[in-house]
Amino acid sequence: MSNLDNEPEVGIVKQKLADLGIPINSYIENITFVYKRPQPIGFRFVCKTPNMLFMELKYNRHFGIDNPQNQLLPANIVGHIAASQSRGLSIRQISDYGSLHFNISSNISGATNDNCEVHFDTVSISHGLADDGTVIYNLENLTEHWTKDLLGVPNLSVRGAKDFIGLTVGWNF
User: Fold this and answer.
1) Nearest CA to 43 among 75, 76, 72, 5?
2) Which of 15, 41, 141, 153 could be 9's S-S partner, Cβ–Cβ 3.0 to 4.6 Å?
């Protein structure tokens, strides 16, 4: 393990994973980068056995796959968009509140020379788990997830409507 293992953000994410029954330390060869606020906290790492980590998450009832590789559009447009932003497979914790999000690849790549990432999104877009193991999305949270977690604007509150047509915008003080 690297000295990045002692960063508070790493400890918080590892504890969340332990609470869900994921023994993440057994998969980590070394941590290559730590995400800090205003980004969602988390870390990038070299995974010793990415296929085994994927299987551990796939069969854990707390996680769902953003988009299986054999699923065709438009079956899961949100999952396709989410998965297209990943260097590998994208897997999310099923939660109506904040949720853990993994990106897992078999190939070492990128500026940080690693193959896996896990971070904690403060706004969850995963609402449930479909029978095929894919995520059922909460479209009402999608715009707020984009602004708070992806754009890093924590004080801007943007909520979608159930039908994704209306928006409510506000500023949190």
Assistant:
1) 5
2) 41
What's residue 151's pLDDT? 65
On the question of a cis peptide bond just before residue 50, with omega within 30 degrees of 0, the verdict is no
Q: What pLDDT digit, counting tens, does each position of 19-29 carry?
A: 999 999 999 99
Residue pair 40/120 in contact (Cβ under 8 Å)? The answer is yes
Tell how strand 114-121 and strand 42-47 pair up.
Answer: antiparallel
Neighbours of 104 (CB within 10 A): 21
CA distance 128 to 61: 10
Give the global pTM. Answer: 0.80
Distance CA 47, CA 30 (A): 8
The confidence score (pLDDT) of residue 155 equals: 64
For the chain, state the CA radius of gyration: 16
Is residue 4 within 8 A of residue 33, CB to CB? The reply is yes
* DSSP at 40: P
Cα separation, 134 vs 123, whole angstroms = 18
39 DSSP assignment: S
